[in-house]
Design goal:
- This protein is of the alpha/beta class.
- It has a domain of 399 residues: Amidase signature (AS) domain (Amidase signature (AS) enzymes), CATH 3.90.1300.10.
- It is 36% helix and 11% strand.
- It contains 20 helices and 13 strands.
- An 11-stranded mixed sheet has the order 3-5-4-6-8-7-12-13-11-9-10, with helices on both faces. A two-stranded antiparallel sheet has the order 1-2.
- Helix 8 links the parallel strand 4 and strand 5.
- The longest helix is centred in the last third of the chain and has 24 residues.
- The relative contact order is 0.16.
- Bound molecules: glutamine (GLN).
- The site of glutamine (GLN) has 14 residues, from strand 6.
């Protein structure tokens, strides 16, 4: 399956072709000035150059090329959206899912690590020991800081560590001593992705262009965390501006996967996922534009939640693609993830796209639930998305997803297959829309308002050089692709069509969720890659996002949690599965996730480096 990214009919290949060598997979650095002069010196590209309004008008005959975007089958479905919707409905008739024989879970990895009890809420445990005065917040802080000191040289999850951890912990201890009320997250150590603004630490978004930038404010999500008593431990590593799937795209460092230090933690929120997996902090914030919370959660064996678009304020989140961006949550248990979501959710007058919907106390609804009844999820309708357990997906991953589906069935769910025929169209549409929005959002980095400035005595070259020196090659490539897709001559062919596909994706999810309570799929087509494996093959890297991008196009909530292992590393590599719900149905996802996690036998998702006492 090429998911529309390879082969002659791929829209991205088509864009790449028009932006010649300079923008092909990074191999050598290039500047915008290089690009413009290259294009203007090539008569065959017929460039008319207007750097200031960022319009690149390329006149060639590719629009009439039969291989150009959109691919023929996409064109026909976009022209006749009803056809695809009808196909969706036709595919929705229920039939039993062929489940593999028991035992469903991967049992090839035998390790004592995988036999411990289900994950307990770390937030709950910590709160108990604080309020019972068994431990002080300072003592707890010292434990986490020691862990960070021992593991950070190998993992490199953090770009900055806070100087205020012990001061903040001391403040909580004083409040407890005086019997004053402490917030629901008192003493909880939180990692924050470095594209989320914090007033007391730099916020670089993993980019040289923002090196040393200190915002004068906290993002709304961070402000709410601090008001709940949480302690922000540090800022976590990410692919520059959130563009990437491995965290290798950070301008500063490569983060390692705690399960196998030679592998990536996923991305772009790889630092936040690795930090929770290695217990360097209790929970963390990430951002998810096309899967950047869910895919690294899967690679690192932790829980990752992408909330409904609008559930959490984006104020203070460095914009990548504003119609897709959401702040999301990582935890080592579903209960912790739900507790974190509750703390950061809600309307914010500083973000007009934040929702005024009431915010339920997500975790309190299920945290005390009794699982002794044999079918706690009786009657819940679960649809396995057929296109996600198809060719192109690692067979071991598919078998873990079958295992998860079987476990849900044992819990009382009615599991069937559903088809989302527009599924593979989501990937090229996502990359066109995300690149287009980023080309506009990133125009604010001019070397004057924020971050780094190149040395120059002339304004135009100050802009050009600051951007050429400040942005990495993947970011430049996205800006070029986006500028191209939005340019006057190609807007209809790329951006408009991609928006039409987006509507189609939304409608097909709606049809599937009218018939099912939740949909499930793998979180990624494979487990964690080796560091360097995909770095020079951006299209292969983009293809790895196939499981997650559609959910962002539709603005829906999705929860990823570990469900099994495949062979790799010293103790196996975790596999995550994704549960997708209707808009604002996070409560249901978290409840199902909690019951799933607490009843899953024989799996403990604590990486060897933690279990071995940080001897990494
Ligand atoms: N890997 C995707 C991208 O590079 C998703 C990134 C994200 O969710 N921030 O666009």
């Amino acid at each position: 399956m090429d998911y529309g990214l390879t082969g002659d009919s791929s829209p991205l290949i088509s864009i790449y072709r028009r932006i010649p060598d300079v923008a092909m997979p990074p191999g050598r650095g290039f500047s915008f000035r290089d690009l413009y002069s290259y294009l203007s010196s090539e008569p065959e590209y017929g460039v008319s150059k207007n750097v200031e309004d960022k319009t690149v008008k390329l006149e060639d005959d590719l629009l009439t090329d039969p291989h150009s975007f959109p691919p023929t089958e996409m064109l026909s479905s976009v022209q006749n959206p009803r056809i695809l919707l009808l196909q969706c409905r036709r595919h929705h008739h229920r039939h039993r899912l062929p489940l593999p024989p028991k035992p469903y879970l991967q049992t090839t990895i035998s390790s004592s690590l995988h036999t411990s009890p289900p994950p307990a809420s770390q937030i709950g445990t910590l709160r108990k020991s604080l309020l019972s005065r068994e431990k002080t917040a300072v003592e707890l802080a010292e434990t986490y800081l020691t862990r960070i000191r021992l593991t950070e040289p190998q993992l490199k999850s953090f770009l900055h560590l806070s100087d205020n951890v012990l001061r903040d912990a001391g403040e909580i201890d004083r409040k407890i001593e005086r019997n004053e009320e402490v917030g629901p997250l008192a003493g909880v150590f939180v990692g924050v992705k470095d594209n989320i603004c914090t007033a007391d630490m730099p916020s670089t978004a993993g980019s040289r262009i923002l090196e040393g930038y200190r915002p004068p404010f906290d993002a709304t999500a961070v402000r709410k965390l601090r008001e709940s008593g949480a302690i922000v431990v540090g800022k976590t590593n990410l692919d520059e501006f959130g563009m990437g799937s491995t965290t290798e795209g950070s301008a500063y460092q490569v983060t390692a996967n705690p399960w196998d230090l030679s592998r990536v933690p996923g991305g772009s929120s790889g630092g936040s996922a690795a930090a929770v997996s290695a217990r360097q902090c209790v929970v963390s914030l990430g951002s998810d534009t096309g899967g950047s919370v869910r895919q690294p959660a899967s690679f690192c064996g932790v829980v990752g939640l992408k909330p409904t678009y609008g559930r959490v304020s984006r104020f203070g989140l460095v914009a990548y693609a504003s119609s897709l961006d959401v702040i999301g949550c990582f935890g080592s248990s579903v209960a912790d993830t739900g507790t974190l979501l509750y703390a950061i959710s809600g309307h914010d007058k500083l973000d007009a796209t934040s929702s005024k919907r009431e915010v339920p106390n997500f975790a309190s609804a299920f945290i005390t639930q009794d699982f002794s009844e044999s079918k706690p999820l009786k009657g819940l309708r679960v649809g396995v998305i057929r296109e996600t357990i198809d060719s192109g997906v690692d067979p071991e991953v598919i078998s873990s997803i079958h295992g998860a589906a079987s476990h849900l069935e044992e819990l009382g769910c009615i599991v069937t297959e559903v088809s989302l025929p527009s599924f593979s169209l989501g990937l090229p549409a996502y990359y066109i829309l995300a690149s287009s929005e980023s080309s506009s959002n990133l125009s604010r980095y001019d070397g004057i308002r924020y971050g780094n400035q190149a040395v120059s005595d002339e304004l135009a070259s100050l802009y050009g050089d600051s951007r050429a020196q400040g942005f990495g090659s993947e970011v430049k490539m996205r800006i070029l692709m986006g500028t191209y897709a939005l340019s006057a001559g190609y807007y209809d062919a790329y951006y408009k069509r991609a928006q039409q596909v987006r509507t189609l994706v939304q409608k097909s999810f709606k049809a599937a969720l009218d018939e099912n309570d939740i949909l499930i799929s793998p979180a990624a087509p494979s487990v964690a890659y080796k560091i360097g494996e995909k770095k020079n093959d951006p299209l292969a890297m983009y293809a790895g996002d196939i499981m997650t991008v559609n959910v962002n196009l539709a603005g829906l909530p999705a929860l990823v949690l570990p469900c099994g292992f495949v062979e790799g590393g010293s103790a196996g590599l975790p596999v995550g599965f994704q549960m997708i719900g209707a808009a604002f149905d996070e409560e249901k996802l978290l409840k199902v996730g909690h019951i799933f996690e607490q009843t899953l036998q024989g799996c403990s998702f604590v990486p060897p480096l933690v279990a071995d006492g940080f001897a990494c």
